[in-house]
Amino acid sequence: KQYRIAVIPGDGIGKEVMPEGLRVLEAAAKKHGVAVHFDHFDFSSWDYYEKHGQMMPDDWKEKIGKHDAIFFGAVGWPAKIPDHVSLWGSLIKFRREFDQYVNLRPVRLMPGVPSPLANRKPGDIDFWVVRENTEGEYSSVGGRMFPDTDREFVTQQTVMTRTGVDRILKFAFELAQSRPKKHLTSATKSNGISITMPYWDERVEAMAKKFPGVKWDKYHIDILTANFVLHPDWFDVVVGSNLFGDILSDLGPACTGTIGIAPSGNINPEGDFPSVFEPVHGSAPDIAGQGIANPIGMIWSGAMMLEHLGEKEAGKSIVEAIERTLAERTLRTKDLGGNADTTACGKAVADMVD
Amino acid sequence: KQYRIAVIPGDGIGKEVMPEGLRVLEAAAKKHGVAVHFDHFDFSSWDYYEKHGQMMPDDWKEKIGKHDAIFFGAVGWPAKIPDHVSLWGSLIKFRREFDQYVNLRPVRLMPGVPSPLANRKPGDIDFWVVRENTEGEYSSVGGRMFPDTDREFVTQQTVMTRTGVDRILKFAFELAQSRPKKHLTSATKSNGISITMPYWDERVEAMAKKFPGVKWDKYHIDILTANFVLHPDWFDVVVGSNLFGDILSDLGPACTGTIGIAPSGNINPEGDFPSVFEPVHGSAPDIAGQGIANPIGMIWSGAMMLEHLGEKEAGKSIVEAIERTLAERTLRTKDLGGNADTTACGKAVADMVD
Ligand SMILES: CC(C)[C@H](C(=O)O)[C@@H](O)C(=O)O
Ligand SMILES: CC(C)[C@H](C(=O)O)[C@@H](O)C(=O)O
């Protein structure tokens, strides 16, 4: 079978890291006899917006909805387009309309990447953050009353549905069950957020009954962020709402040294729609155009994509090539104390793939 | 003038650290000629709840509403009373009904306390988290529909009022203006939480105009938590909503080694009602009764209380005594690698006060 991948570089450094992501994907596909076809799209970018006055063509769903996966760079350029236009007009649209209800991100301390935490070595930190990706705190329900007066107020609802909560918890418990430690941690704040969060806890308890082999615990989000710093070795699979998952999946990679190398998947597990794989970092306008961006987040996202497609060996070969590359100072980009540029780093990983 | 302080030890280790907090307060008051009178209350505790079926007497406001401040230990014992009864029946009631709209917590790396962050020394990390303490995400507006069916859902509103947002921002900007760096950072998430957070940003911009001497910036909460770990030296005053402030004021102290020594003030700046000073740690049922709890969070809260009352010198003398105590390994409690028990550590600080 040949996989059809929609390629969307997007904005800023998205355009610079994408060629390296593709280079390494091609190398791994070749070595492992995987057939991949790439279709390139220029939408979901400032350039496209400037020409067309919208982020994507009206028929974007037809254009990319039948692909096996979407390989995505970065989107957003706040100085040129407001976030609610650029992000809600592309990235968040994908998540909602392709029902990518799982946002999955590894937190893993890699060789060669200095951790900001004292005395942590590769192997000490190795867990997954599973984030609900379609509802929760990112609702569009709410509004403003008494504008421009002293009585002005705004409200916004957090919405949690049984369907939405149960399916993300099921995914997280299944992931925990598949791992050696079989340990799940739930992020809550039921002592302060007194309606939605107790509901989340209630559904976690119900789901846990179906997975008797999984040990589970829960922490309020405040102390959980503290424990990411103090005890990152406590975690195996951490599940959270849209907002809590968002926070934990930036904090986790920071604890392992940099969000510059972190990958993510926006996954529709049923396969009714394509999933999106993208680096955690954004478009980074401040360093765009200099050729110095770290391509590892993009490359690692490619590995996650291959694994999602069922090509475990090819995916694994990329992750191992990343580890070997990062271990060599000269092959790392500047942000990690090396002196390679984006292309040199990408080529190094491609060469290491076997 | 004699200050009248309401003393509420509460639950668990609250009862063990309170005597040390009082011991040090008395020592500092004596040295600095400050007259303090303590009134002791047993409510806001499991013991009281067991006897009376409620957390506080009906006339709690008359009992403590006229004091100059409230010195509070800890409350909550989830195994015995649900949080929504214990916390919402005391701590959160104080915040709301005494209009303590500022939650103020220092983040400061102290000598002798090993930081989980690599290569950070005392002096490198020294900032304040200013948290909105009465509204925002901790609302009681919301509910559940279609219970026990597949269509079940819950909603909860975040509520931000012009009054509520502006007054916390004003407090934070004033605090920033009073500090050498004059730098304020606002926590937002306006790219994902699309109604309340853009409003927060809008009010920050409006308030900033009134404080031209203050440099300010804003970060989305996800990358902000990452920056607490990667660049704690970037911050001076950080202001956030009820939830974001809660998260940042646990994460910050964790980055400086432990939440066991962090103090906090729940402040009504106008002085219409008493403010509450309490350690950040909770009642810690797991170590209660062993005499090993670290009393520094309680003692430091006493220093914040004295400063709030206008007794700057006496407050400062306590903070300095804490620094001298922590610098000696043998005077620290077990959680900080020492071998002092709660009382020995408290006595050491009291002796150091000058
Ligand atoms: C106990 C809990 C409700 C409280 C909060 O979230 O406000 C606590 O975490 C705090 O920070 O004082
Ligand atoms: C860009 C932003 C809306 C997005 C989010 O918060 O979901 C980003 O932070 C992410 O984590 O993918």
Automatic annotation (TrEMBL), chains A, B:
Pathway involvement of the protein, from the record: Carbohydrate acid metabolism; tartrate degradation; 2-hydroxy-3-oxosuccinate from meso-tartrate: step 1/1; Carbohydrate acid metabolism; tartrate degradation; 2-hydroxy-3-oxosuccinate from L-tartrate: step 1/1; Carbohydrate acid metabolism; tartrate degradation; D-glycerate from L-tartrate: step 1/1
Cofactor: Mn(2+); K(+); Mg(2+)
EC number: 1.1.1.83, 1.1.1.93, 4.1.1.73
Pfam families: Iso_dh
PROSITE patterns: IDH_IMDH
Assigned keywords, A-Z: Manganese, Metal-binding, NAD, Oxidoreductase
A GO molecular function held by the record: NAD binding
Domain Isopropylmalate dehydrogenase-like: 4-349
Catalytic activity: tartrate + NAD(+) = 2-hydroxy-3-oxosuccinate + NADH + H(+); (2R,3R)-tartrate + NAD(+) = 2-hydroxy-3-oxosuccinate + NADH + H(+); (R)-malate + NAD(+) = pyruvate + CO2 + NADH; (2R,3R)-tartrate + H(+) = (R)-glycerate + CO2
Top-rank lineage group of the source organism: Bacteria
Entries under InterPro entries matching the protein: ICDH/IPMDH, IsoCit/isopropylmalate_DH_CS, IsoPropMal-DH-like_dom, TTC_DH
Family under the similarity heading: Belongs to the isocitrate and isopropylmalate dehydrogenases family.
Job description of the protein: Has multiple catalytic activities. Apart from catalyzing the oxidation of (+)-tartrate to oxaloglycolate, also converts meso-tartrate to D-glycerate and catalyzes the oxidative decarboxylation of D-malate to pyruvate.
Protein known as: D-malate dehydrogenase [decarboxylating]
Organism the protein comes from: Bradyrhizobium daqingense
